[in-house]
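pasting for the record
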Amino acid sequence: MIEDTLIEDGVLRVILKGPYEPDRAPGYFRGVVDELRKAGLHKVLLDGRGFKDKLSIMDRFAIGTMFSSLGPLNIKIAIVGNKRLVLPDRFVENVATNRGVALKVTTDIEEALSWLRAGPKETAAPKKTV
């Protein structure tokens, strides 16, 4: 699933290819978060334009919840996919942001990079009030 990783201008870029493996995805992304922390970075671009698979609504929901299940991340995540994979309502983005994850889904890599560069370096999940 992860073909390559590289660091460009303070952003960890992860190139994703091949079939989506739902059972292995959390481990892959935990590794991405670990690599971010080791490098002292707070921004990641997941480039999924090489995916050819269709994702079910449950796969999309699982992707959206996966990041929040890893604990407080304090990172910004941009996912770039091809037009066939990114739903117009950006379901994955909505699921993730509703769980306090700073995540953007788009088909435009420049839009993703612009979003990552804008705003604070660290993005914390909203604080819960009692």
